[in-house]
Each structure stands twice: as structure tokens, then as C-alpha cells.
User: What shape does this take?
Amino acid sequence: MPELPEVETIVRSLRNEIIKERISAVYCSDKKMRVIAAEEFKQRAKDKVIEKIERRAKYILIFLTGNEVLVFHLGMSGRLLLTTKMSQEKHNHCIIELASRQFLTFYDPRRFGFYTILKQDDLAQNKIFSNLGVEPLSNEFTNHYLQQCIKTKKLIKQTIMDSKLIVGVGNIYANEALYMADILPFRPSHTLTVAECEKLIASIVAVLNKAIELGGSTLRDYRSSDGRIGRFQHKFLVYNRKHCPNCSNLIKNTRIGGRSSYYCGKCQN
Ligand SMILES: [Zn+2]
Assistant: This one.
């Protein structure tokens, strides 16, 4: 499933390629992947110019002239691919043709993703965005903020993965960050010390930045907008590992909230 680093990788590469491009045509499949009618989507996007591209949580936001913004969520297996030929894949749900004869294609075989168009002015109030927590790579993600989040008996791994508190810390990165911070994933959140919170913040930021630098992680489906796979999956310290890289003990695996949770019982407390 594409997580924050994968989505950020796509956003950064698209930003280099399609800013100031004009949308010359829009094609939509008849699959229910939109929250608005295809005709309205096409009519509002066509002939607009791409002004900027941003990421919020795991949403890709393509800001257009005319106060419009395209919103894409990749779900489990979605891709947003930029090509110079129009692709004819069965699972293409939306193709945006640019005046330069490039094609931005939203492809999603498992169909957990979606796309839509919103007014920029309505973005903050829209129900998609109004309940999202802070961005972990922003200045808002401070120790003071994390102190507020951990006033709960919920397990720390669930707290850092709760998108109402902190967005985009998916399962892989939560495992890695907790390992790097020497904190067991099933510690009740309120037992973390201020120093541990400091270390956890630094670890979350470090693991996300490292993953972005390596183009994200590809476990199954993920591809960047140019079709490349990520490389961070070769750098996992604890996720899906057999032995702890620090002490060589066996890595243990349990389920927390239904998600695989890997840890070293010796190095993490
Ligand atoms: Zn260890």
C-alpha cells in the first residue's frame, strides 16, 4: 500500500514534469472511482493549467487554474503514471491528456483508491481533509504535540498510526520508527517519557526522509509516476526481518490492530 514516502515521491517527480501544463482532454472509465459524475469532472478539469502539486497525508493534490484541485488517493494498489503514449490498460480509471502530449493515468486494479475534483476554497472544510492530524514532516510535529497525543492507554504503535493525530505513518514506517527509538510497539502510550517521545519524533522523521530519498518502498504494487519501484524495502531494520541488526536476536512478530508488528525483545523497551 503506498504510504507517505511513496506518495511524496510521486508528488516530487510530477512537480518536476507537469507544472504549467494545460489539460487538453480528460477520459474517465465507468467504474465507480469518483465521487462526482464523469461529465462534471471532465468539464471542470479540461483546459485548466496545472499550477502546483502538493501532498496532504496520502492524498495527491493537483492545483489548477479556476480555483480547482484534482484529488487522487491511491488506495492499496493505485498508481499515477506519466507517459508519452496513451496507455490502454484495463484498470485505467482516469487519463488526463496534457497539451504537451503527455498522459497522466490513474490506474488501480484493486479499486480501493479514488479521485475527484474540488474547489480549492473548500479543501480545508471538506470531510476528506477536515479530520486529518499533523504532517510528521512539518514544524507542527513537536514534542509538545506528541505529549498531547500520548495521554491514552492505547498502544503507542496505534497512536502514531492514528491519522486523526499524525498522518501518513503507515505500518512499515511505524515498525521501523519504534525500532529506531528502542520502544516496544505494544507499550501503552502514556508510559512514554519525554525523552522517549523526543527520540520517537526524530525516528519517525528520519525513517520517512530516508524512505523518500530512496523513492519509497515497493512490496508488491507500488510504482512512482515514471514506473520505477522504490528502494527503501532493502533498508528495513525490523520490518519483515529475521534477526535484529543490532543484537542478532530473533525478531518477533505480533499483531497490533490487525497489522504485523515486528520488534526486538532485547533492544526495544
Ligand atoms: Zn536487538
